[in-house]
Design a protein that fits this description.
This protein is an all-alpha fold and 132 residues long. Helices cover 70% and strands 0% of the residues.
């Protein structure tokens, strides 16, 4: 029979299994989840819901316009033409990427809102029938 190697310090032992299980596991899991809880029914304004995609959209549009200006400068200015021709498409592509990400993000949020409303409706139906 093999004996497991003993650690030099007795404090490095793993704790017994009864110490690992706590009675608060369910509540801490719900509290630590990043998604909104189905149980809370606080209504949020449109700005609170859509502010991140709107910011991404506006930054993307600004960077895209900045890239357009830089490319147009390469047409009008003759000195440092290579710098404008290299950096202009980079700003155009970055701005377009942010613009598209913001435009795609908005329908995803709308779909999540509809799913959340359905789940809240089903949850209220469950509580109505099972709490009688």
């Amino acid at each position: 029979m093999e004996m497991p190697p003993k650690s030099p310090d007795e404090s490095e032992r793993s704790p017994p299994s009864r110490e690992l299980i706590t009675s608060h596991t369910g509540s801490t899991l719900c509290m630590s989840s990043r998604s909104e809880s189905v149980w809370t029914s606080t209504s949020r304004s449109k700005w609170e819901i859509y502010h991140k995609p709107v910011i991404v959209l506006s930054v993307g549009a600004a960077v895209f316009l900045f890239g357009t200006v830089i490319i147009s400068l390469s047409c009008f200015l003759k000195d440092k033409k290579n710098i404008y021709k290299m950096s202009g498409p980079a700003f155009l592509s970055l701005g377009l990427m942010l613009l598209v990400c913001g435009l795609v993000w908005i329908p995803i949020i709308r779909k999540k809102q509809k799913q959340r409303q359905k789940s809240q409706f089903l949850q209220s139906l469950k509580s109505f029938f099972f709490n009688r």
